[in-house]
Amino acid sequence: MATILGCIADDFTGATDLAGLLARAGVHVSLRLGVPETPPEDTAPFEVIALKCRTAPVDEAVAECRAALAWLKQAGAERFFWKYCSTFDSTAEGNIGPVAEALMDDLGAGQTIYCPAFPENGRSIFMGNLFVGQQPLAESPMKDHPLTPMRDSNLVRLLQQQVTRPVGLADRLIVARGAAALGDRLAALKAEGVAHVVVDAVANEDLGIIAAACREMVLMTGGSAVAMPLPDLYRRDGLLPADAPSLKAPDLPAGAVVLSGSCSAMTNEQVAAYAGHGPSLRLSPLDLAEDGPVAALDWLAAQPLDSTPMIYATAAPDEVRAAQDKLGVSRAGEVVEQTLAALALAAFDAGRRRFVVAGGETSGAVSQALRLSRLDIGTEIAPGVPWTFATVKAAPIAITLKSGNFGDRDFFATALARLEAS
Ligand code: ADP
User: Fold this and answer.
1) Of 355, 261, 343, which is closest to residue 297 (Cα–Cα)?
2) Could you read off the pLDDT of 277-323 as tens digits, one per residue?
3) What pLDDT score was predicted for residue 340?
4) Do residues 33 and 367 make contact, with C-beta atoms less than 8 angstroms apart?
5) Fewer CB in 10 Å around end: N or C, the chain?
């Protein structure tokens, strides 16, 4: 089916977040890891391209996003969404503004909106100021972010530094009056030459109003939440057939594996909770640095295909620190990531077709090892973490990529059960 909405996300977890929220409406969403190298084929009505350009040099970010836009246009999309972080992670140079301006130029768009709000997750915008929970952005922990320290809470000011054309504000008083009033305000601002409009949102209802008012804009920009109402609006507009099929899980042979490289507090609990469900093997970065992955690969090869082994490097903070002190932070991370990636490939070669992966960086390493380029979004396991379906060496697989603190204690078992049931 031709693509209706083409989305570009500035990082992988942001892309999965957006793809998952869109899929909640029961529509088919396909997530691409990087700009596909081949022309669009077998596309979904909602396509999301995950890039890694949040902190790239501006020129690189702009070039990559323009390439993504060109691919999405080829896929048939006529509306586009530029997704960035709900804390507006950027610097005085960019990349949020420069990318938006480049996309607007390529699309001939006279105006776009900026709405990173996600009230449910404590990100709200009032009078142009972004709040993280009850704190203004510039007083939140984001003020000390190593790459994108946010030292101003005012999005109009932040954005004006990044773009060449005027920035304006549609405040909460306008949004509260409904979609028609917001539409009028945007038109009035456009007549004044305001190309970039920050839009306030402090509650979920605001996002519905904003999406309704802006759904015909060729380009919208923001966090994932403001895109969430779009599938239902498109259905109402007749753009998306009411009975457009959502995605079904492929038929998969038995065989699953759990791979965990996250050391977050929640993942530590999840690993402990899963022990006993199947055979498990704990990886030690020190042993891996010394002896390589062979012992772990041999262990996996010895596990029956109808069991679900768990292999984890997940450890408590003091153990992580001890390994890092001996090996250095990056080497400790690398040996674990490389081993889990090799194990994923070995599990696939042994016939396992369901993968539960914990850890953001770990997910990146596993995705690369399996050469994943496209993930079709399936059922949601926990808020923000769906099952996804992909093809590896012409065989269908199911994989869920969970970063950091996502999911509850029983996430691993729940994930496997949810897949059976779907
Ligand atoms: P999260 O999503 O929780 O941040 P990531 O996979 O992104 O998880 O990051 C965890 C990092 O810690 C990875 O680079 C991983 O290889 C590394 N790591 C995992 N286990 C250990 C350990 N026991 N000691 C040191 N580093 C580890």
Assistant:
1) 343
2) 989 999 999 999 999 999 999 999 999 999 999 999 999 999 999 99
3) 98
4) yes
5) C
Indicate if the alpha-carbon torsion angle 42, 84, 363, 366 is positive or negative: positive
Polymer length of the chain: 422
Atom of ligand 1 nearest to the CA of 324: 25
Task: Tell me which DSSP letter residue 227 carries.
Answer: G
pLDDT in tens, 49-92: 999 999 899 999 999 999 999 999 999 999 999 999 999 999 99
In this structure, the residues whose C-beta lies within 6 A of any atom of ligand 1 are 261-264, 267, 285, 313, 315, 319-320, 323-324, 332-333, 336-337, 359-362, 403-404
Question: What pLDDT is attached to residue 146?
Answer: 82
pTM: 0.91
Q: Which residues contact 417 (CB under 8 A, 6 or more apart)?
A: none
Sign for the CA dihedral angle at 32, 227, 10, 415 comes to negative
Which of the 8 DSSP states describes residue 34? S
Find the 336 Cα to ligand 1 centroid distance in Å: 7
User: pLDDT tens digits for 170-220?
Assistant: 999 999 999 999 999 999 999 999 999 999 999 999 999 999 999 999 999
CA distances (Å), origin 3, targets 44, 76, 90, 419: 6, 5, 29, 27
The residue to mutate among 262, 281, 284, 357, having the most atoms of ligand 1 within 8 angstroms of its beta carbon, is 262
The CA distance from 368 to 191, in Å, is: 47
Q: In 10 A of CB 242, how many CB atoms?
A: 7
* Continuous segment of H or E residues that includes residue 256: strand 256-260
Full set of structural domains in the chain with CATH: 5-237 (3.40.50.10840), 256-421 (3.40.980.20)
Cα gap 417→354, rounded to integer Å: 11
**33, 9 Cβ separation under 8 angstroms:** no
Lookup: tokens for 6: 């083409």
Q: How far is CA 51 from CA 87, 194, 314, 338, in A?
A: 18, 28, 27, 22
